[in-house]
Amino acid sequence: AQERYASIRDKPAETRDGAVLSLQMNAGLMADLPSLPNSGAEGVGLFRTELQFLVRNQMPRRSELVALYARVLDAAQGKRVVFRTLDIGSDKVLPYMKPNDEPNPALGWRAIRVGLDKPGIMRMQLQALIRAADGRPLTVMFPFVAQFEEYREARKLMEKTLAAEERLGHVMPASIEIGAMLETPSLAFAPVKFFEEVDFLSIGGNDLKQFFFAADRENERVRRRYDTLNVSFLSFLEGIVERCHATGTALSFCGEDAGRPVEALCLAAIGLRSLSMRPASIGPVKNLLRRSNLAEVRKVIADARHRGEMSVRPSIMEWLREQT
Ligand code: PEP
Ligand code: MG
């Protein structure tokens, strides 16, 4: 499939009406790295660090993490890599961690909540990232931030770790960006100050959608019940885009929907300009974006809303059929 899109691989993801998008790839295992030059990705918009922890049967040592993250940065050849700190907890249980018996693991003690309550592992991970960067730019993102205070605390931990590493004689990263995932609806309504303080935000659409509709993403009975192109969800996403626009906050979208061409087109239409997806999706998404006029897509969305439709999907699909 990658070959089918080879002719546009080095072309920009630019729509007919001149909107230019940045398309990045999601990764997490070393096996993903060869895709970086082949897919046409501008960088790694989401590196899920927990995958490395999940595939092993004991806790990796810090030195192993340093080597691993350095290899990721080497493979990226100067392109930006967004390292997401561990998103583990009772929904992603490490084989060597005592499982917590939680009735609602997706809503439980996971991700940044574990990282802040038991900072040992997160500190080790941050040290490994700083050492792996070894003077190169470093981008870190905290998962599952639900309120401003959690971001502040995590950021403080990063700053303390940096200072300690510097005292130990390690080279500081050339630049540091510290962002957060927006994957709980609460964060969309955080104070303006949060949007001003965070270096960037990335919408984790998989989690954000499950919490928005209160529909478990793992539950086959409900997970397909609510469409990403549901007008309520699109309005919600639009509100996030507007808040980021007003505060000048860099925003991207890294959930699975970013890699679905029709969804990606609608995300672009409501103002997103940075999408991160599995590498094989970059070609198909870019192809549709390059053939589309976002002003027309916005008109289709507005008309569907005006008619009171539940999802804009049928209208978009009809419009797409008329295009060909
Ligand atoms: C998400 O929630 O959309 C996301 C990108 O993170 P994960 O799928 O790893 O939870
Ligand atoms: Mg998530």
Keywords:
single chain; 324 residues; alpha/beta; 9-stranded mixed sheet; 9 strands; globular; binds phosphoenolpyruvate; binds magnesium ion; phosphoenolpyruvate--protein phosphotransferase
Please describe what this structure looks like.
This is phosphoenolpyruvate--protein phosphotransferase. It is found in: Cytoplasm. It comes from Roseobacter insulae. The structure is a single chain. Helix content is 44%, strand content 13%. The radius of gyration is 20 Å and the shape is globular. Strand 2, helix 1 (35-39) and strand 3 form a beta-alpha-beta unit. The longest helix has 20 residues, at 148-167. It has 324 residues and is of the alpha/beta class. Helix 5 packs across helix 6. The chain starts with 12 loop residues before the first strand and ends with a helix. Strands 1, 2, 3, 4, 5, 6, 7, 8 and 9 form a 9-stranded mixed beta sheet that branches. The structure holds phosphoenolpyruvate (PEP) and magnesium ion. Phosphoenolpyruvate binds next to strand 3 and helix 9.
Radius of gyration: 20 Å
Order of helices and strands: EEHEHHEHHEHEHHEHHEHEHHH
Strand percentage: 5-15%
Mean pLDDT: 95
Query: Which compounds are bound in this model?
Result: phosphoenolpyruvate, magnesium ion
Relative helix content: 40-55%
**Model regions low in confidence, pLDDT < 50 over at least 5 residues:** none
Number of strands: 9
- The chain-level structural class is alpha/beta
Cα shape = globular
Cα-to-Cα separation, first versus last residue: 21 Å
Q: What's the number of helices?
A: 14
Major β-sheet annotation:
9 strands, mixed
